[in-house]
Amino acid sequence: MQSYQNATNTVKNQDIIAETAVVLELLAFAAGTISNPRTPAVLSQALAILSYNCAISWASMLQAEVAQ
């Protein structure tokens, strides 16, 4: 996360942008794991549910932050 913070030094919401980048990395990793044919179906389904809930919660938090 430090590398993202360094890249966004001049941005007002530096921490939020860095945290969003980390969340997007984790969601991309989950999507890659889900799409792997060797991943068991149960694990893919669990990761899909967790990823969906994470994305929705994060989007809601970002909307609230932008509205302030």
Molecular structure report:
The chain has helices at 2-7, 14-35, 41-67. The chain is an all-alpha fold and 68 residues long. It has one domain (2-67). The longest helix has 27 residues, at 41-67. The two termini are 24 Å apart.
Can I get a quick summary?
With 68 residues, the protein is mainly α.
Specify the helix fraction band.
over 70%
Silhouette: elongated
The biggest beta sheet reads: none
Q: Briefly note the structural class of the backbone.
A: mainly alpha
Low-confidence stretches: none
Strand coverage percent = under 5%
Domains counted in the coordinates: how many?
A: 1
How big is the Rg? 15 Å
* Series of H and E elements: HHH
Question: How many extended strands?
Answer: 0
Average predicted local confidence, pLDDT = 86
Total number of helical segments? 3
Could you give the distance between the termini? Answer: 24 Å
How are the SSEs placed, and which strands pair?
Elements lengths: L1 H6 L6 H22 L5 H27 L1
Helix pairs in contact: 2-3
List keywords for this structure.
68 residues, mainly alpha, 81% helix, elongated
